[in-house]
Structures are given as C-alpha cells and as structure tokens.
Design brief:
314 residues, alpha+beta, Nitrilase/N-carbamoyl-D-aminoacid amidohydrolase, six-stranded mixed sheet
C-alpha cells in the first residue's frame, strides 16, 4: 500500500458582481486566505472574473474575454509564485477573432503556466446558452504533474460525462477538479430542485468511486439576474470534495461565500484501486460501441423470445 501523502486543497466559492476587477480582487484575496490556512492547491469557480453571462445571448459579453496567457493569467501566476501554491483558474479565453473558449489555466507553485484545458462539452439549455459564446475544446482530456499532485481539470457540463472522468483518470489524475456554475432557474428550487442538486452531487461522487480518485467541485453561489429573457439563476453553492470511496470529506454552504479547505490523503488512491480494481477488470475489448453516437436499439431475436438459428442448441 502507498504511504500516507497528506495535502490540503482549497475551493473558492463566491458571489460574483458586475465588476470584473472586483471579482478578481476578491478571488485573489480568498486564494491568499486559504493559502494562509495551509492550502497547497486552490481552484476558482467557473468563469470567476464575471457574473455568469451565458444566461442569454449578447455580443457585448465578448468584451469580457482575454487571451491566455493574458492579464488575469499573469496575476494568478504572480500569486502562485508568491504563495507557493498551485492554482486552477477558470477564464473566458479569446483565442482569436471570433474564436472563444471556456478555459481553465493550470499554474504550478513556481508560477509556471503548465497548460490549459478547454471545456469539451458545451451546453445549450434555457439559461445556459454557452454554444453562442464557446467553441468546444480541441485539446482532449489532459493531466498535469504539479508540485503537490497530478491533476485533471474538467469544467461544469463535463462533470456529467463518465467518459471525461475516465479518460482523465486513466492518465493518472489523482484529483479531478471541476470549476462549476450551476443552479436553479426561476421556480425550479420549489419544484423538486433538490433532486437536481442530489443528482449533481451523485454523478461526481460516482466519478470518484469508479476511478478511485478525489473529486473537487467548486461552484458559485447567490442569485444572478440574467435579464428579461432568462430571469435569473440561483447558484446553489455546495462546493465539495469527495474521496476515492465517494465520501464527501468537506462541503461548503449552499447560501454563502466560503473558501473551503479539505485535507486529503493521496495514499488512499492506491488502496482504493487495489480493493476495487476497476481498471484491472475493464473489458477494453468490448467497449468499441462507446465511440458511436448511438447503438442499434432493436431487440435481438433472442431478446424478442425467438431462438437465433445460428446459436447452438441447449
């Protein structure tokens, strides 16, 4: 079994204001605060520099985008170097004129920009019009060796897809970070909205179990008005960290800003993967259908109660 490898991670859950510089300033102050409490790896929520502008389509919001590396990346790099912490920051990337991504930067504790992850799954739902703003990621699923741990980063809608978690964990990710912006549309909280929250927690806990790794989901909190077309979103906070058995080891408030600290033992990953050897027992010879959009859903003759003449008799 692997020896104990204790580290601390921090998740910055906050309310966003309409002023990007205010959001950046407060987020950097929160990173500084969790680092003072011992956090070695810190993640922001999704698109932390602004309010969640994807509630409706408005070309003015493209002015919020910036290149990577760019001014906010540099601020995060300087802060990481000063505090000797790893930072995962979620930004609105302007890659080129007319080409934008929902992108996470991964910065090592010496301030080096290790790379970026561009969100792969882009939603287009009421209140979440992200396809208007973001092109799908084209870098695939990636991991980074940082000073303190081997990280995988996925973003929000990615968290619902087991394939994304699996392919990232297969590259050795010890922690899956999910910068997130999720909440209730008008009326949803009173109409069974807790089922949505429970589903959100359950799917990510299942990624931790199925892949024998830690999962850290960091959401925003508070109501953000989206205009007449979409009303508002009540972001439900609830940022959390789950261990390789899917147990929630730390959880933030659903109503208030909170910088969450979690002490985790990376040595548990080896133990979990030995006790539940999902990677060993995967039938990689039988999964070719996963590369298809949909498989033939017609029942086989056997399923329909008719013996297939090509099958051997009893």
């Amino acid at each position: 079994m692997e020896a104990v490898r204790m580290i601390k991670i921090g998740l910055v859950q906050s309310r966003a204001t309409v002023e990007p510089e205010d959001n950046i300033r407060r987020t950097m102050a929160a990173i500084r605060a969790v680092a003072a409490r011992g956090a070695q790896i810190v993640s922001t929520q999704e698109l932390f520099c602004s309010r969640y502008f994807c509630q409706h389509e408005d070309a003015r919001y493209f002015d919020l985008a910036e290149p990577i590396p760019g001014p906010t990346t540099k601020k995060l790099q300087d802060l990481a170097r000063e505090l000797q912490v790893v930072i995962v920051g979620s930004l609105f990337e302007e890659r080129a004129a007319g080409l934008y991504h929902n992108t996470a930067v991964i910065i090592d504790a010496d301030g080096a920009l290790l790379g970026t992850y561009r969100k792969m799954h882009i939603p287009d739902d009421p209140g979440f019009s992200e396809k208007y703003y973001f092109a799908p990621g084209d870098q695939g699923f990636r991991v980074w060796n940082t000073r303190y741990a081997r990280l995988g980063v996925l973003v929000c809608w990615d968290q619902w897809f087991p394939e994304a978690a699996r392919l990232t964990a297969m590259q050795g990710a010890e922690i899956l970070f999910y910068p997130t912006a999720i909440g209730w549309l008008p009326g949803e909280r009173d109409e069974g909205g807790l089922k949505f929250l429970d589903a959100w927690r359950t799917i990510q806990r299942s990624h931790a179990i199925a892949n024998g790794c830690y999962v850290a989901a960091v959401n925003r909190v508070g109501r953000e008005e989206g205009g007449e077309a979409s009303g508002f979103i009540d972001f439900w906070g609830g940022s959390f960290v789950a261990d390789p058995l899917g147990q929630v080891v730390a959880e933030a408030s659903m109503d208030d800003e909170q910088s969450l600290i979690a002490s985790i033992d990376l040595g548990q990953i080896t133990t979990a993967r030995i006790e539940w050897p999902f990677f060993r027992d995967r039938r990689i010879d039988a999964y070719h259908g996963l590369t298809q959009r949909l498989l033939d859903q017609r029942p086989s003759r056997v399923d329909a109660g008719v013996r297939d003449p090509s099958s051997p008799t009893d």
